[in-house]
Amino acid sequence: MIDPTTKRIHHNLVDAISPPMFAISLLFLAMIATLIVLWVDVPRVDQPSELATGVQPTDSLANSIGQALVYGCLLLWPVFWIDFAVARLLCPPEYRRWRDGFLVCLIPPLRLGARNPEIDSKIWLPVWTWCEVDDNLRKRLRKAFGGPMIMIALMILPILLVEFTMQGRVASTFWLRVLLHVGTGTIWFAFAFEFIVMYSVADKKIAYCKDHWLDLVIILLPLVSFLRSLRAIRAMRLAKLAKVQQLSRMGRIYRLRGLAVKAFRAMLLFEIVYRLTGVTPQKRLDRLQLLLEEKQVEVEEIREQIEALETLIMRQESDAEPG
Fold first, then answer.
1. What is the DSSP annotation of 295-320?
2. Helix (H) or strand (E) holding 72
């Protein structure tokens, strides 16, 4: 039996920690999105002039800022381990969920949708505060994400239009390149945020990933390209020793990186069609559940009619029997 005072202390602690941890997790995700832009999208846009001249002013600045962000992520990472230790060591043993905690420590943005066993496995969300994880919450979240995510996905259309029709102006206009990069980062951040939250409230997480494989691909493609960017940074550092050979290697890496970004944007176009036509797995499931409820009502009506007829037949048989 848990002491009421101890339980209240645990609840107060979790209640106090959850909002700032949500904010820190959101910041961590934003830093990853910025790193993807700096180390994937910026070099992709600037690569033609860089490879032609062998000079990388924009890319060098992006790498410097990116390295600062990496250090920032490394400084924030221990906060998630401390949160894990505090939440697990101070709460009663029956509330400790080690696997979920370790997963959050390895992938800090997952803290955005972490359930708190100390408060009946509820989830903390801005404005809504503590929410029971059930079908009602999932419907509210789908409704909240629906319109904004379609608008976010539609952002890819003007980005592609500007890149393909105004290449010369993009190359010569700094603020236009900045707007394109910000747009790309915003799109990735929004999709990652939605996926993490909806994945966290899903009952069957593997099934959710299968049903929303397109969202998962949109999130993972830039991350894969981001890992390749680490090789490009190393190649740039070694370029002073073997400039021609390293620039050739960087060219191959840039082309692979550009291919990943093209695939990312193709998936986004597919996602736009997917969402606008309404043929998402979740919407199909909702329609089937609604159809099932309607059929159940019809079945109940048929059963009532059968019972009424059986009662009528029994009365007729009883009246027909000789007194």
1. HHHHHHHHHHHHHHHHHHHHHHHHHH
2. helix 57-89
Per DSSP, the three-state class of 131 is: strand
d(CA 111, CA 218): 20
Whole-prediction pTM value? 0.74
**Residue 217 has which token pair?**
């691909």
Kindly state the tokens that stand for 266: 């193709």
Q: Per mean pLDDT, which range of 30-39, 66-75, 234-243 is the poorest?
A: 234-243
Question: What's the DSSP call for residue 90?
Answer: S
Q: Tokens 């002039």 label which residue? A: 49
In a domain, 298, yes or no: no
What's the pLDDT tens digit per position in 196-207?
Answer: 999 999 888 888
What pLDDT, on the 0 to 100 scale, is given for residue 173? 82
Of 38-47, 54-63, 73-82, 215-224, the poorest mean pLDDT is in 54-63
Q: By residue range, what is the domain housing residue 133? A: 4-48+55-284
User: 3-state DSSP call for residue 98?
Assistant: helix
Specify if 322 maps to a domain: no
Q: How many whole angstroms separate alpha carbon 251 and alpha carbon 257?
A: 10
What's the sign of the alpha-carbon dihedral 220, 221, 226, 227?
positive
Structure tokens at 6: 């101890």
Total domains in the chain come to: 1
Q: With respect to residue 78, please indicate whether it lies within any of the assigned structural domains.
A: yes
For residue 19, tell me if it sits in a domain.
Answer: yes
CA distances for 98 relative to 14, 168, 263, angstroms: 16, 54, 37
Cross-strand bridge partners of residue 83? none
Q: Residue 4 has what pLDDT?
A: 65
